[in-house]
């Protein structure tokens, strides 16, 4: 394929002392040679691939030195995009790296769109679709943890698992073929059934496990939906504000679900939170009534985490107790706020209502207790969950949909065998499942199924 040469700042993750401007495309070397001057006068077009060179960038219009740089020269196809790639390493700092990018753009490169390097890697066959999507997620990843999930996927974890499952299905299909070709042998049929149930059962289990991770994957991408509840004036809005101030607010492209619920995205010790203050729903209304309102109920129902705020300087009221009831069985942290004021609340009753859920005392006015609250949030999320690095996650909604369909097809095949449905009907479900899994990793389907069947298994012999 032929593409123009694109360029962008691709500063490595983590440390930013060095910034990189990356070029990819047929003209990458030509453009670099226009700008690069090495002390020995060599041209990048003549150097060995995958080597790095010291020199200066000059502006060819004025012959003035722009920047002191190290340039990596990498010839396709052994690059991320499979194209010729030049990486210009310059001293960090926004000004200098932007100056280098501008220079490159003035001399024949085009500014890359977000994710365009990845798109090329996919179009040039360097990575499969699920890997490409993982990189896209990476670009959008909102926290370190979300990033490590995206990275794991990029390394092909999901792809590897899907390939393995497809292989299982393929082997089953091969046996089904034999069965269809030699229906007169009874033992072949029985073998086929046993094997089919065994292998399909395995695939079903793996798909179920994978789909179970999708909820967590979603949380990592979109944030733990966290609802702040409490009766008026206990400090809900104050809590939202201090969490948002203490933590870098996360920029998001997810549209607000509703105007009357206030939303903030924050990153609390690696846990992405989508904070919802139900107080946004008119506070003058009676809270019991409010909880009864369909919308609030919906917000509560969809919550992953509840922050229930109480007022230390007031006695517990029936409103408080009703709120406890409304969040029964949910993950919650009980916050006893306004500890700077004299205590009037009955802590024994609070503890009884809280049950096994953590209670944190705060004074939002005096900025106390926030640290402990953050710790409690992080504990709650990370304790109950398996380390992101150990698992294959799905978090991409297209993958989730395809995996769900593939699971359904496998289940159909299994129940088909169990109910004595003709094997060539079962074969259709198996094939469908195989195809759907193929779509996850972007492998095209129909004829390749036949090809693979016959290249991998010697059938009918
Ligand atoms: P909401 O109605 O639950 O959202 O409560 P707000 O956050 O609007 O707070 C109600 C009032 O309580 C405001 O005047 C706050 O300044 C005050 N407030 C919030 N937190 C504290 C606290 O820890 N101590 C004291 N003394 N006042 C607080
Ligand atoms: Zn409020």
Automatic annotation (TrEMBL):
Thylakoid among keywords: no
Pfam assignment, any one: TrmE_N
GO biological process: tRNA methylation; tRNA wobble uridine modification
Residues noted as binding Mg(2+) in the record, renumbered to the chain: 237, 258
Residues engaged in binding GTP: 233-238, 252-258, 277-280
Transmembrane portions of the chain: none
UniProt key word GTP-binding: yes
Domain of life per record: Bacteria
Protein residues bound to K(+): 233, 252, 254, 257
Record's GO cellular component terms: cytosol
Localization of this protein: Cytoplasm
InterPro entries named among the record's database cross-references: G_TrmE, GTP-bd, GTP-bd_TrmE_N, GTPase_MnmE, MnmE_dom2, MnmE_helical, P-loop_NTPase, Small_GTP-bd
Cofactor binding description: Binds 1 potassium ion per subunit.
GO molecular function: GTP binding; GTPase activity; identical protein binding; metal ion binding
Primary subcellular site in the record, as a coarse category: cytoplasm
Subunit annotation: Homodimer. Heterotetramer of two MnmE and two MnmG subunits.
Family designation: Belongs to the TRAFAC class TrmE-Era-EngA-EngB-Septin-like GTPase superfamily. TrmE GTPase family.
PANTHER family with a match to the protein in the record: TRNA MODIFICATION GTPASE GTPBP3, TRNA MODIFICATION GTPASE GTPBP3, MITOCHONDRIAL
Biological role stated in the UniProt entry: Exhibits a very high intrinsic GTPase hydrolysis rate. Involved in the addition of a carboxymethylaminomethyl (cmnm) group at the wobble position (U34) of certain tRNAs, forming tRNA-cmnm(5)s(2)U34.
Protein name: tRNA modification GTPase MnmE
Organism (species): Neobacillus piezotolerans
């Amino acid at each position: 394929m032929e593409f123009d040469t694109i360029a962008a700042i691709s500063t490595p993750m983590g440390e930013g002392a060095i910034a990189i401007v990356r070029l990819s495309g047929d003209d990458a070397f030509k453009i670099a040679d226009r700008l690069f001057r090495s002390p020995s006068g060599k041209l990048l077009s003549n150097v060995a691939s995958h080597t790095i060179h010291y020199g200066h960038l000059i502006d060819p219009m004025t012959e003035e030195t722009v920047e002191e740089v190290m340039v990596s020269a990498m010839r396709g196809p052994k690059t991320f995009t499979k194209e010729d790639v030049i990486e210009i390493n310059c001293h960090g700092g926004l000004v200098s790296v932007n100056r280098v990018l501008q220079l490159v753009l003035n001399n024949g490169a085009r500014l890359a769109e977000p994710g365009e390097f990845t798109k090329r890697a996919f179009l040039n066959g360097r990575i499969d679709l699920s890997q490409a999507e993982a990189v896209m997620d990476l670009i959008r990843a909102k926290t370190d943890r979300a990033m490590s999930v995206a990275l794991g996927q990029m390394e092909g974890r999901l792809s590897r698992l899907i390939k393995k499952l497809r292989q299982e299905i393929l082997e089953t299909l091969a046996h089904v073929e034999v069965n269809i070709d030699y229906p007169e042998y009874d033992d072949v049929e029985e073998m086929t059934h046993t094997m089919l149930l065994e292998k399909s059962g395995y695939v079903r289990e793996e798909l179920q496990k994978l789909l179970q991770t999708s909820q967590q994957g979603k949380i990592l991408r979109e944030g733990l939906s966290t609802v702040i509840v409490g009766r008026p004036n206990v400090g809900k809005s104050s809590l939202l504000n201090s969490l948002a101030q203490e933590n870098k607010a996360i920029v998001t492209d997810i549209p607000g679900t509703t105007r009357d619920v206030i939303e903030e995205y924050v990153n609390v010790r690696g846990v992405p939170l989508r904070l919802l203050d139900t107080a946004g729903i008119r506070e003058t209304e009676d809270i019991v009534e409010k909880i009864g309102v369909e919308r609030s109920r919906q917000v509560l129902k969809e919550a992953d985490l509840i922050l229930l705020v109480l007022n230390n300087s007031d006695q517990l009221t029936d409103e408080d107790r009703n709120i406890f009831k409304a969040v029964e069985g949910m993950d919650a942290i009980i916050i006893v706020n306004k500890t700077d004021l004299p205590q009037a609340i009955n802590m024994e009753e609070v503890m009884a209502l809280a049950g096994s859920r953590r209670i944190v005392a705060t004074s939002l006015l005096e900025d106390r207790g926030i640290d402990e609250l953050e710790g409690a949030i992080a504990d709650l999320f990370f304790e109950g969950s398996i380390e992101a690095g150990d698992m294959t996650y799905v978090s991409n909604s297209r993958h989730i949909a395809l995996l769900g369909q593939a699971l359904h097809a496998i289940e159909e095949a299994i129940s088909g065998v169990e109910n004595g449905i003709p094997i060539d009907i079962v074969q259709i479900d198996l094939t469908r499942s195989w195809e759907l899994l193929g779509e996850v990793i972007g492998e095209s389907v129909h004829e390749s199924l036949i090809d693979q069947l016959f290249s991998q298994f010697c059938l009918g012999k």
